[in-house]
Write a structure and sequence with these properties.
single chain, 180 residues, alpha/beta, Rossmann fold, four-stranded parallel sheet, two-stranded antiparallel ribbon, NADH dehydrogenase (ubiquinone) activity, membrane
């Protein structure tokens, strides 16, 4: 918030002053506290997420109260649990149906690296098929870890430039995953 400063009003406008900041900062602040997560839970990490949404931990106080079970209305994909290779195309389709800007959080060891399931049928991390912004460690992670992951996503959203999605670096990242 140090980028926001009080400046004097232009001549002819009454009042002590008004706040001026960059559009990037204002949009980032608004986006970060109005995330609509889509939980993609397949196993025990999903149970921990349910605890995080409960009254004791109350994820709503972080501005992520409204869960969206439609990818077209969500902007944060939270992948929790083991993802089988047969499920990978479905997860990718859900990601592609989300509107830009979109962020991804891999919750737990299975979504991050395949966990203890080093087999032919388990995807060894969702970053093989979609880009991941934040990894939450644990098997399963505690609700505090999930909240920490959400606050890291909020920091990323607040500091992200509006033009980042148009940058060559971002386009190269999507091209690496075969996404146009």
């Amino acid at each position: 918030m140090s980028d926001i400063k009080l400046v004097e009003a232009p001549p002819g406008i009454e009042g002590a002053g008004f706040f001026a900041t960059s559009l990037d900062k204002a949009v980032g602040l608004a986006r970060s506290y109005s995330l609509w997560p889509l939980p993609f839970a397949t196993s025990c990490c999903g149970i921990e997420f349910m605890a995080t949404m409960g009254a004791h931990y109350d994820l709503a106080r972080f501005g992520a109260e409204r869960l969206s079970f439609s990818p077209r209305q969500a902007d944060l994909l939270m992948v929790m649990g083991t993802i089988a290779k047969k499920m990978a195309p479905v997860l990718r389709q859900v990601y592609l149906q989300m509107a830009e800007p979109r962020w991804v959080m891999a919750v737990g060891a299975c979504a991050s690296s395949g966990g203890v399931f080093d087999t032919y049928s388990v995807l060894q991390g969702i970053d093989e098929i979609i880009p991941v912004d934040v990894y939450v460690p644990g098997c399963p992670p505690r609700p505090e870890g999930i909240i920490d992951g959400l606050t890291r996503i909020q920091e990323l959203v607040q500091n992200e430039s509006i033009r980042r999605r148009d940058s060559d670096e971002y386009k190269q990242l999507l091209a690496k995953y075969g996404i146009q």
